Amino acid sequence: MPSVQDTGAGAGPTPDMAGDVLSEGEARAALARGQSGLLAALVAGGETPPGFDEKRLRIQEFSLISKRRGTVARLRPDLVALLGGDFAGEFEAYARGRPKPVGGSRADARDFAGRLEATGRLPGRPEEAEESEPSPASRWWRFRRS
């Protein structure tokens, strides 16, 4: 991937790592491709982009999945209670190679519960548990966001 140096707005051509000169448009396109590849590797199970350490990238991927898992656990403590010690493994299997859905953490929790139900790991409809009395964590989240 060509490197892009911050030469200021409208500063003209940008040299890449090989010393070739890129136009501003080419430099922006190269940067966008590089960012897209990195993002895919971190959240969608994509290949490690050139120039990145595979091991460190996988550590960061695991960290991001752990963060998602913690948020889903706070939003849906019923899933944690139902799965017990299997919660972490089940969530990792669900999340690995799957970016967070467009609807954010609540959509992530809903999709995870749907996957559990589809695979027979969750009895009943996940929405029924969600409609009951809100958990202290979800009440805290609503208060914090307002």
Describe, in plain words, how this protein is organized in 3D.
The protein has seven helices and two strands, in the order E-E-H-H-H-H-H-H-H. A two-stranded antiparallel ribbon has the order 1-2. The chain is mostly helical and 146 residues long. Strand 1 and strand 2 form a beta hairpin. The N terminus is likely disordered.
- Let me know the number of strands: 2
Radius of gyration: 21 Å
Spatial strand sequence of the major β-sheet: 1-2
Uncertain segments: 1-7
The gross shape turns out to be elongated
Order of helices and strands: EEHHHHHHH
* Straight-line N-to-C gap: 43 Å
Summarize the structure.
This protein is an all-alpha fold and 146 residues long.
Outline the secondary-structure elements.
Layout: E1 14-15, E2 21-22, H1 24-43, H2 54-75, H3 77-83, H4 87-95, H5 105-118, H6 126-131, H7 136-145
Antiparallel strand pairs: 1-2
Keywords:
mainly alpha; 146 residues
